[in-house]
Design a protein that fits this description.
The chain is an all-alpha fold. About 85% of the residues lie in helices and about 0% in strands.
Length: about 180
Amino acid sequence: MELEELKSTWQAVKPNLGETVKYEKSPTRLRRRHDVKSRLLNRLLWGEIFSVVCLVMLATSRWWSPTKLPVIWIAMFCALILAEMIGGMLIFKSLRHINLWNDTNAVILSATVRIKKFYRNIELVVCLSVIPLFVWLSLIPPFNNLSDRLVIWALVAVAFAAELLWYRSNMRQLTRMSSWIDE
């Protein structure tokens, strides 16, 4: 009795399985995913270029900046920027290895989840390292007056807000790339 019910259920479901596979691998769906992947790769590439420019400007700031930050400060900020750049390169490499045309949805989803976890961890480490550095920076002698502290904290707030918007946008794009149903 149960075997007959199972067989009839299978016969009812079997014709719909082919349509599901056809829908998941449709060319327009894959093109949309590819466009999202290309956009993410371009954003990561521009982020890395911006980081290189910031690293060069910070590393050479002793020569051109009127404030003359101590060398230890420059080294700490350069180390953080370098750590962020290495993380960005690893995310870029992981994203490039996703093959939207040949990989299954499960492989794409698991790779995307790994990228999102790594991206979140890099953001947390860098942000949680930068906050104490800026607090300490606002308390050292070159920035003792109130107006300099306000400028530092305003720039930090703007930078963190921009980074949060950039991060959330990239996460949305990653989610779109790995979603089962296009929006």
